Amino acid sequence: MGKQVKFIAYSDIHYDRLGAKCVTLEDCEQVERSVHERMNAGFDFSIFCGDRFLKREPEDEVKTRADRVLFEGLSYRSPRPHFHLIGNHDWVTRSKQWHTSESLRCDDEADYSINDFMHLLSKPSTVSYEGVNIHALPAGFEMDMSVYDIDPKALNLFIFHDMVTGCKLDDDGRVLAESGISLASIDRPEFDLVLGGDIHVPQRLPFKNTRGGYVGAVLQRTRADANCERGWMEVTATKEASGKWEFDIDFVPVRGFFTKFSFEVDESSKFEGLIIDETRIVDTHCEVELIGSRADVDRIANDPRWENYNTYYNVRNLMLTRKYKVEKQEAVVDMSESHGVMDDLNMYLDSGFVDIGNLPREGIVGVVNSVLEDK
Predict the structure, then answer these.
(1) What SS3 state is found at 311?
(2) What is the pTM of this model?
(3) Which of 15, 131, 238, 255 lies 20 to 30 angstroms, CA to CA, from 60?
């Protein structure tokens, strides 16, 4: 076996007092402490791929507590480098002159050093450490290969924080990014592995000349993350005799903060017949979606026993969403022979063939009448 390098990569923690009305400051602290505790299992360094705070100007308490977690995490282990990329949420202004990790500096002349093991990456650059080159592209900069120092003998890691055109914006891959940097601009054979921040969905990118993709957010941030795994990556890079690097990448999931259950209900459905995995809802935001006719959905949703989930299972927030099915009806009136627009409209509304919901009938008739008068 050739040379081996082990590191942890995480991203988009978005410290905030209460994100999405669920994720707390304490949650963020606990997750990041877990990352740094894991570093003691023989890893060589850690990488953060940007977006440390949710707000561009975080509250003083949020900022102080987040910095403390990072300092303590680095201090309690034997010195191993931490490479800290600046994301778009980290820039206080869009001028790229000031970011929220400025407080981690202690050397006014160096852009990235606080001591021998903290590296702030706030401009496109290369930082070297014991045969590893970290090539950084922070948020807001154009890709320019001329700024990077490529050493073919080293392990060349490229980290960036931006949206790549065509990447997945949701876990099902139904929504793709229509803008951003091009895949070709970072798909370079000079890079042995590419890791990105900004997009919260962990995913491989369809590279042809290199390998890698998005690390993803280190924890669930919104309801859209419900039932989706978020966490950090543990990477073991091994240099083969051929000189090529091979990678073993493990994804370590963090506990969920958002869960969702969907149930189709009908006239035979009962509250006690809905099966919810109680182990998944403790201390989470839980959304229950009920699908069916209005009468059946409302009957189940209005059951007072839903409150028991808040009482007995410490659910942070229980949200019931109602999805009514539109019942198809056969036409009960023959409109094949026209008797005039207004007659046809009234017959159509009387037939029950269409559900106009909360729209006032007189309003619909009035609008059609106005159109006819204008002709």
Answers:
(1) helix
(2) 0.82
(3) 255
Q: What is the DSSP letter of 267?
A: T
Where b means 16+ CB within 10 Å and e means fewer, 54-89 reads bbeebeeebbebbbebbeebbeeeeebbbbbbbbbb
- Contact between 3 and 239 under an 8 Å Cβ cutoff? The reply is yes
Q: Where are the chain's structural domains?
A: 4-253, 258-324, 341-374
pLDDT tens digit sequence for 142-181: 999 999 999 999 999 999 999 999 999 999 999 999 999 9
Strands (E), the chain: 4-10, 18-19, 23-24, 45-48, 82-85, 113-115, 118-121, 125-129, 132-137, 155-161, 193-197, 203-204, 212-214, 231-239, 245-253, 258-264, 285-292, 317-324
- DSSP annotation of 350 reads H
Homologous superfamily in CATH for domain 4-253? Metallo-dependent phosphatases (3.60.21.10)
